[in-house]
Design goal:
The protein has about 170 residues and is of the alpha/beta class. Helix content is about 35%, strand content about 20%. Strands 3-2-4-5-1-6 form a six-stranded parallel β-sheet, sandwiched between helices.
Length: about 170
């Protein structure tokens, strides 16, 4: 199966985390690939994923829009895409490409680049693709997805929660 979780609302990564937790509780082999998110600085869910036996890969920690970070001038997202292709050939039951749609939205890779990687994946795995996107730049991905969800903000606080975690 292929899941796409996109939109401007909060909950894309949280939804994928729930799928990873459920898969691990059933003994499935899970790989989580981060794109454009320095989780050690912002969210720290990678620590818990590793503790429950998820293979965590940091494909690209940088994005020009994130405070205090910038994409190194010599970083080529196609190097990251080559790593994703290797991961998708592996025998994982579940692979999550967290925030990879930002790579397409912001022109680091094309939709066709990601489609080519997906079409050559191990077909027994479930694939979850998350991130904000422009509606018209993932239409081919959505056409092959089994589940596509667009998360919409109804109401969202623009501050830290009470326990100090960035959302």
């Amino acid at each position: 199966m292929i899941y796409i979780i996109t939109g401007n609302g909060k909950g894309k990564t949280t939804s994928a985390l729930g799928l990873a937790l459920r898969a691990r509780s059933h003994g499935c082999k899970v790989c989580w690939c981060y794109f454009h998110k320095d989780v050690k600085r912002w969210s720290r869910e990678d620590k818990m994923l590793e503790q429950i036996g998820v293979d965590v890969k940091h494909i690209c920690k940088f994005h020009p829009a994130f405070p205090g970070t910038k994409t190194p001038p010599d970083y080529d997202m196609r190097i990251g895409l080559a790593e994703v292709k290797r991961i998708l050939q592996n025998n994982y039951d579940l692979v999550i490409l967290d925030e990879v749609l930002i790579s397409i939205r912001d022109g680091f890779i094309t939709e066709n680049d990601l489609l080519a990687a997906i079409m050559n994946r191990n077909t027994t795995m479930t694939l979850v693709i998350t991130g904000r996107s422009k509606k018209d730049n993932i239409s081919a991905l959505e056409s092959i997805a089994d589940i596509s969800s667009h998360i919409v903000n109804i109401k969202h606080a623009d501050k830290l929660c009470q326990i100090g975690i960035h959302y």
